[in-house]
């Protein structure tokens, strides 16, 4: 510090004291520190804002998922579509519609905060509410956003099932093929994913009266199942395949 003062004194023009030299330097340093503090505070505020938005989005999506489960349970448990049941489901749909609109707005304004799982939930909900266009949009985004081979496989598979149910069979088949071409390493859980996808695809082909494709795909499912090393997992999956083939309980 003393050396710096000595340098400043020697560099000072005649007739000027040290205070005259240091004052503008200190002012500049103060301005720099003030700017740095401001930038840091803005960064903290932005990070906090993102955290709050993500928390709000998570809460909204959780409520949507909860209602989806309630509606599914009601439809499965009720044998008849009574007026009372229709009224309850309509009320749930109104609630879902409000929540999904709020989540849609948050995602459009903050797209990077949404995961592929979030996007898939939005797609399923829009589909259940009858908005096929929005559902398709969110399925496409879910496939793009998937960050691992397993997630990409599952999103493509579920998107393919959506397309099949909308009578877009050829596009659905292409999407199923893409999902089955996943860059897997042959682990048991990955083989199970593939077998389950074959079963799902087979069931959809059967719904369209394509029995030859059903048989072929079920054979593929069985072949993948036999590659699973864990005996318990293999047995459980084989039971699923047998039920799909009409052989199970």
TrEMBL record:
Superkingdom, taxonomy of origin: Bacteria
Keywords: Membrane, Transmembrane, Transmembrane helix
UniProt keyword Transmembrane present: yes
Spans traversing the lipid bilayer: 20-44
Protein name: Tetratricopeptide repeat protein
């Amino acid at each position: 510090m003393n050396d710096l003062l000595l340098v400043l004194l020697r560099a000072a023009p005649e007739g000027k004291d040290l205070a005259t030299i240091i004052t503008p330097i200190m002012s500049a340093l103060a301005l720099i520190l003030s700017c740095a503090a401001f930038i840091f505070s803005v960064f903290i505020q932005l990070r906090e804002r993102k955290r709050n938005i993500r928390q709000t989005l998570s809460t909204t999506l959780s409520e949507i998922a909860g209602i989806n489960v309630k509606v599914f349970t009601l439809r499965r448990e009720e044998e008849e579509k009574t007026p009372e049941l229709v009224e309850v489901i309509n009320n749930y749909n109104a609630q879902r519609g409000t929540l999904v609109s709020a989540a849609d707005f948050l995602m459009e304004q903050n797209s990077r905060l949404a995961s592929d799982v979030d996007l898939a939930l939005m797609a399923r909900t829009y589909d259940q509410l009858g908005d096929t266009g929005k559902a398709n949009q969110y399925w496409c985004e879910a496939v793009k956003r998937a960050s691992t081979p397993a997630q990409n496989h599952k999103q493509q598979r579920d998107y393919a099932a959506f397309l099949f149910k909308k009578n877009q069979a050829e596009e659905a088949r292409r999407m199923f093929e893409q999902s089955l071409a996943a860059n897997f390493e042959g682990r048991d859980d990955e083989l199970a994913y593939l077998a389950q996808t074959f079963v799902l695809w087979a069931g959809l082909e059967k719904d369209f009266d394509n029995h030859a494709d059903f048989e072929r795909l079920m054979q593929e499912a069985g072949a993948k199942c036999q590659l699973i090393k864990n005996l318990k997992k293999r047995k459980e999956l084989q039971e699923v395949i047998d039920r799909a083939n009409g052989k199970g309980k």
